[in-house]
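SUBJECT: A protein chain and its fold
Encoding: whole-number codes for local backbone shapes
RECORD BEGINS BELOW THIS LINE
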Amino acid sequence: MFATYLIGLREGLEATLVVSILVAFLVKSQRRDRLPQVWGGVGLAVALSVLFGWLIEYTSTSLLSRSEDRELFEAITSVAAVVFVTWMIFWMRRAARTIAGELRGKLTEALAVGSLAVAGMAFLAVIREGLETALIFYSAAQGAAGDSGPLLALIGGIVTAVVLGVLLYASALRINLGKFFTWTGALLILVAAGILKYGVHDFQEAGVLPGLNDLAFDITSALDPSTWYAALLAGMFNVTPAPTVLETIAWVAYAVPVLLLFLRPARRKPAPTATTTTITERGADTGAEAEAASTPQRA
């Protein structure tokens, strides 16, 4: 369940920061009259994201009658989720320092067009996070049919993200978002490696890939699946005591190089060393720049 909580927290905080930047800009620009359009766009994005998640689940459980088809569908969604996670992590790492300025620029253009453009701007800013969350959650929660734990964990992560966003906006909390996104990004890479491993297993069960009975190793005697720590490893990173050869190759081939690339220090120009970030109502040009990562500030 920690994996789905982490997904909700990470994706939810990204969406919350985006909305906070838009709201702070409107407040600072004395355009509070456009706030209903922003919240309307956000609400529509959330509704469509929930609908998308339901559609994925409905397709898997109701539209696909053969077990092989369901396994193949789950395998494809797992691979898609891994692609989205990888793209999202590296996109946030690269775009964090400029996202606030880009959003404010787009919102300025939308304000000049009209109400629908403002709503559309907010909708597009949130819908990507929502669709990613629905797809990644479905892939991460596979195998937990009938268990409400993963859904509750996801909701808990989103609620935590919203609370953090509100506190950041109100300047009641200061956190180093650069470190936050680095640590959660590294953990999500391990989660994605587990999702990919699960997808490979589904491909094997669907008959697309061979080697379903070719085990890489079997440490069931040392890692009893009935123990709490084995369940924790399986739930978080899909680490199982008896994986197949292809599952193991997929996990290592993804996790090792992606982690090395993600944790590699980025090339930066000389800048101040302080790296805390705050969102404030009257600081749309400073605090609202939460830039979803560390923002240099002068002492």
Notes: Residues 272-299 have pLDDT under 50 and may be disordered.
